[in-house]
Protein 1
Amino acid sequence: MDSLQTKNNTSNLQSQKLQLTLDVSESKATELKNEVAELRNAIGAIQRETGALSGELKAVTAENERWKTDFEQLTQAIKPNSTQKK
C-alpha cells in the first residue's frame, strides 16, 4: 500500500510539474502574441510614414524639376542681353 501511495505522490508531482510547464508555455505564447501585435502595428505605422514620405519626395522632385526648368529659361533669357550690352 505504501508503494501505491508513493507512486500516486510521484504521479501527482509529475502532473503538477507538467501543469506548471504548460502554464509557463501558455504565458510565454500570450506574451509573444502581444509582441507580434505590437510589431505589426509598428510596421503598419512605418509603412504609412514611408508612403507619406515617398509622396513628399515625388512632390519635391517635381518642384525641383520646375525650378531647374525656370532657371534654365532665365539663364537663356539673360545670356543674349549680356552679350548685347557689351
Note: The mean pLDDT is 93.
Protein 2
Amino acid sequence: MSNSVILRSMLRQPVQTAILVMIIVISTFMYVARAVEYLVVKECIASLGEYYRTIGYLSGMRGSIDDVTIGAGMVRSSEYVDFEDRRRGAEGILHGMQNADISSFNSRHYDFETEEITPLHVFRYTDAFFYGELTGITRNRSVVAEEPFALLSFRVDIVILGYPEHIVEGQTVYVRYYLSDAEIEEENRLIDEHGSTDLEILAITEVSGMTLGQRYLIRGETEFDLYRYGFTDGVGLPRIGREIQDELVMLPLNSRTHDWLRLNPDNAIWFIPVAADEGIDISSPEMEWLLTEITNVRHDQSAVHVRTSSDMTAIPYAQPEVDLMRLTDGRWLNREDHLNGNNVVMIHEQFARIRNISIGDTISISIPREQYLLLFETNLPPEMRGLTEFVYKSKPGGEIACDLELEIVGLFEYKSEYRYSGLVQTPFTVLNTLVYIPDSLFPDDIVMNTTEHQTTHIAIQGFEFLVDTDSVVGEWYSFVLRNPLEKNVFFYEINESRNSLGDTGTTAIFRVNFIETDIDEFTASTDKMLLSSTITIILFSGVLLIVLALVAFAYLRLRRSDLAVMRILGRPKTECRLELLATLLVFSIPAIIVGGISGWFFSFSTAANILNPNEDYVTSFFPGIKTDISFAWVFILIFIPLLMHLIIASAGSRHSAEKSILEIRKP
C-alpha cells in the first residue's frame, strides 16, 4: 500500500478525503444511534410491561380466607399462566439475636366499650427475668378503670433474659404489681372501716414481705400501650439504653406458658430473695420449672414469622395499586431467587432499625419441623386494612427441618398512619417479625398441628383446611398471566373447567380476581413508540445505504485520473480494482467503527428519556427503567454498514476497473 498511486493521491487531497470520511462517520453514527434507540425502547417497554403484569388471585365463599385448592389446580394447568405464587409459612428461630416484637400482644388491655381491663391473647412473650435490688415501693391507682397497683423500683444488676429495650443492667426498672380481686376487696373493706384511704396497702398484698435494699429474682412483662408507642405525640417505641425504662408488669416466677397461654399457678411465687453476688442454680432438679419457663421465653423471643414467595413482585398487596406493602430499601425477592434457590431474605424495616441490621447483612434462621397453627381472633391492626394473618408457633427442643444462612436484600413496611420522629412505624411490632424467603428454600416436610384450645375454635369457623399443608389458602395464593391480552380467554378456560366438575361441593366455588392496572393505556402509548422507532430505523437504514453509495460514487469519480494513469502504465484490471477497493476501505472502515461506537454510547444517554422523560413509571415497586442490552450488539450494528459498504465499493471498483481508458477519462 505504501506504493499505491491512489493512496498517495488521496493524501495529497486531505480536504476531500476528510469530507468523505466525516460523511461516513456521521451517517454510521446516526444509523447506530437510531438502531440502539430502537433496542432500548423495545427492552424498556418489555421491562415496563412487567410493572403492568396481569396478577390474579382467588377468593372463596368467605373471601380470601378460604380453601381454593381446586381453583389453584385449574390455574396451575392453564397454558395462559406464566407462574403461580403459593405462599407458605412457619415459625423460624433466629440465631444470635432476638426478634424485635418488643410491644407484642401479650399484656393487659383496656376496652373502652366495656370499660374493663382484660389480658390480650398471648402471641409473644416479652417476659424479663432479672436480679435486682429493691430501691422503692409506692402505692398507686390506675387512671384507667381505677385498678390499684404497687409500683416497685429495682436497680438491675443481672439480666437473665429480656429485651434490651425493656431492661438493662445497671439501670432502674419499674415493675407494677396489680392487686388481685381478693386484695382489692380487702382494701375496700379497710377503707370503709377506717373511713380513709391513707393506709399502708402494702401490708395486705403478695409483695408485703419485700424489703427495701434486698436483692430479688423477679419476672415481669412489658405492658402494651398503643397510645404511648403509636401516636406522633407519644414517646415512640422503647430504645436500648434509655435512662428510664418502660414499666413492666410483675408476673409469678412459676407462671406457666402452656400452648402459648398464660396459666397462673394457685400458689404463686412472686419473688425469690437472693444474697448479693449470688445466683440461683436454675439447672438443679428442684428449679427445673424455672429453667423450662426461661427456655420457653428465650425460644419465643428469638422467633420470627417466616413467609415464602416465588416472586414478591407478584404478591397482590405488594402492588402500587393496592398500596399496602411497600419497599423501603434494596429490592424485592424475585423469580430468579426462587428458581436459583438463592439464600436471601426480605425483612421489615422496623426490625432492621431496632436490631441495627441493614442490606447486605446476614441472619441465621432455623425452621422447626413441627409447627402449631394459632388463629388471630380478629384481623390485624389498621395498617393491614383487613388482611388476615395466621401465626405459626413451635416448641423449643424440637427437630429442625432446615438451617438457613440468609443475606438481607430488601426492607419493606406496611402502610401505617402511625409516625414517630418522622418514621413510619407500627406499634403492633408483631408485624415486624414477618420475614420473606424464596419458596424453594422452604422445607416440604413440615408437620402442621393445632393446640388443644385452638382445635375447637378452628373447627367452629370451618378452618380445618389451614392445618392441611396440601391445601391452598386464597390469601396466600396469586398467579401471573403470560400475556395481559389473554385475560378474557383465560376466564373462559377457567369457567369451562369449573363447569365440567359439576356439583363437587363448596370447595369448587371460587372467584378469579385481577389487580386493576392501566395496561390498555400503556399498550396504546407504547405501541406508538415502538412503531415510531421501527419506522425511524428503517428510514435511517435506507439513508445509510444511499450515503454509502454516494460516498463510493464520489470516491471513484475523484480517482478517475489515477485509475487512467495506472491503466496506461499497463497495470492489470484486477490489480487496479483491488487497489481502488483497498484504498477506500483503509479510510472507510475506521470511519464506520468510530461512528458506530460513538452512536452506541450516545444513544444510551437519550433513549430511556425518550420513553420516560418525567420518570412517570418510577415507584417503590418498580424502581426505574434499566437496560441490559449486550455489548455484542455493537459489533452486529457495525458489521451491517461494513457489509453494505463492502458490497457497494466492490461493485463500484469492479465497474470502474472494467472500463476502457477512454471511458475512464470521459467527463
Note: The radius of gyration is 38 Å.
Protein 3
Amino acid sequence: MNAKILRSRNKSVVAIIFIVIFLLPVCISDYTVFVRAATENGDDNYNIAAKKTPIDSTNITELTYWDDNYGTIVEVVVEGNYAYIALGANGFIIVDVSDVEAPRVVAEYDTYTCNHIFVDNDIIYFTNNSAVNILDASDFSNFVLMCNFTVFSGLDDIVVSGNFVHLTSNSYYHIYNITDYLNPAQTDFYTQGGLYQIKLIGNIVYLEDTDNVRVLNVTDVTSIDYLDDIYQNDLTDFDVEGNFIYTSCYDNSFPYNNDEVIIWNATTLTTITSLSTYELNFTASTSTELKLSGNHLIVNDGSDFEIIDISNKSQPLYYALHLDTFEVNDFCIVGDNLFAWNGDDMKILDISDLADFVEIWVDQYDGYSYHVYLDGIYAYVADGTNLQIVNVEDPVNPIEVGHFFDENGDFEMVHVHNGFAYILEDSFGLRIVDVSDPTNPVERGNYTLGGDYIQLCANDEYVFIASVGNGLRIIDIYYPDYPQQSLLYQEVGDVYDVEIVENTLYLACGEYLQIVDITNPYEPEPISNYTRSTSFYIDVEVTEDYLYALSAGEGFDIIDIATDITAPAKIGQYFTYNSPGQIKVDGEFIYLLDDSALFEVFDATNIVHPKKIGEFDEITVFNSFTVRNGYIFVASGFNGTHVLTTNPLLTVKSPFLGPLAFFVGLSIFSIVVLFIRKKKRR
C-alpha cells in the first residue's frame, strides 16, 4: 500500500514539473505582454494579452517630475542652516546648507513673486514689485500667509526689526508698523534720489543710492531724522561695521577706468569724513560688490575676488587675489563660507584661508533640460551648465544622487556607456565624464569640434558624432583622458541621427538611410542604403530585426534588416499629418514625439500595420524623451524632467528569460527523475 501511494505521489510530482516546464517560459518570456491596470481602490491587477493581440488603447498620464530649473536667482540670504533664494516670478526656494558639500532643496514657494527676502526666525518677509508678503515658515511643508499688503510700485530692499518693516521703493524709504499683521500702518517715510539697499544697525539706517550712502536716525519711527550722507561717484556697494563705512565704486572717467574702495570715518554720524582710498587691481569692470570678513575686506568685480587687509583703516593693504571664471552678481559671507551667485547658478567657497579660496560646491538653479538618457537605474539629464544624475529605480520617487557642473557649459546631449557619460556641448564639442561613481562624476577628457553636431552614440572604444553638413566624426576614446579623432566619415554629408549595434552603424541622412560596417573604424564600409521617394529621415531606432526610421512631416517606416541587411526592405509604415521629431521603441510599442509637443504611442504587434493606442499633449515643451517598460522620461526645457506612465502599463519581458526558464525547468525535471529512480532501486 505504501509503495502504491509513493508511486502515485511520484507521478503527481512528474506531472506538476511537466506543467511548470511548459508554462514558465510562456509566462515570463517576451511572447507575453503584461498589462498593468490600477483599479479604483488602488489595487494592482495584471491582465495577460497574447502577443498577436494588439492593445485597444492606453492612457498616458504624468506620474512625477523633478526640476532644478527653479528660476532666475535674484537674491540669496543665508540664515542658520538654510539658504533662502529669491527667484523673482518663480517665488523662492529654501536650500539646506548644513552640509555645504551637499546642499539640497527642502522647500519651494511659488504663489507670489519674490524679488527680495528677509528671514527672522520662523517668519519670512519678501517683496514683489508693489507688495510685502509675510509667511509663517515654521513648517516648510505648509507655509501660512500671515499678511500681504500693498505699498508703492518698484519695491526693492526689505529689512525687519521687531515690529517694524523698512522698505525702499524707487526714491522712497518707508517704515511700516506690523504689530497688527492684518492692519500694517506706515509710520513715516523719507524720499531722496533712487534708493536701493538698506542696512539697519541699531537705530541707524544706511541707504544706498546711485552715488551716495545716506545716514538716518530712526529712533523715533514716526519722525525720521536725516544725519549725513557720503558721496562716491558710481557707487556700487557698501558695508558698515563699528565706526566705519566701506564703499566701492566703478570709476569709468577718463583716463582712470579703475575700481576703488573708500573707507569712511563715521565716529560722528553728522560729519562723516573720508579716511583712506584703495585702488583695486581690477580694471574695466562694470560693478564691484564688497563684504567684510574680520580684518579683511573682500571685493568682487563680477568674477574675481580681491582681499584687502584693513587692520589699519588709514592704510589698507593688498592681501590676496582669487581669480575665478564664475560670473558673480552678488555674494554673502557666513562664517568661513562664501556664497556667490549669478542669475543661473550658486557657488559655495571655503574662505577659511583667505589666501586660498577653495570651491566646495556649485550648481545651477535656472537650467534648461535638453536631453535625457537612461542607463541602468540612473537617468542622465543634459541641463545647460549641468549634468544631472538621478536614481529612477523607483520612477515615482526620483532621487538626484550627483551632478557634473561647468559654469561656462551648454550641455545639449548625453550618451552613457560603460561608466562614462559622453556630453555634446554647444560651441565646444565633446566632454568625457567618468560616472562610475554617480555621486562623484569627474571629467576625464574633452575634444573640440567644429560645426553643428547634434547626436552621438558610443561603444567601448569609439564615440560616433553626427553632424548636419560635416558627416560623421569617429573619436577614439580608448584613453578617455586623451580622446583623438580617428576618422571624419564623409561618405554622407548630413547625418541627423546615429545608432550603433555591435559593429554596425545606422545613419539617418535626410533623403536616405545608410547602414555601415565599422569592424575597422578607420575604414568604415557602407553595407547598404535605403530610400523612399518622399522621405526625409531624421531619427532612427534599431531592434534585433527591424530599423524604425522617422521621416519628417510624414511618420515612420519599419524596415526589415534581419532577412538581408544588404537589401533592407520596408514591411510597415505609419503616416501622420503631424510633424514627428523623435522616435523610440520599447518592446512591442513605438513612441513618437511631434514637434508641436504631441506625444503618441503605437502598438506594433502587427508589424505591418502599427496601431495608435494613445496620445498625450499636456506638456508644452518636449525637447527629448526616452522610454523603459512603459515609463516615459521627458526633458522639458525650463519645466524640468517629467516622468509619464501608460495605463495600462506597457511592459515587455526580456527574450532571454523564456529559454533560461525552460533550461532551468528541464534541469529540475531531470534531477527529480534521477531521484525517483534511485528510490526505486532501493
Note: Confidence is low (pLDDT under 50) at residues 25-51, 653-658.
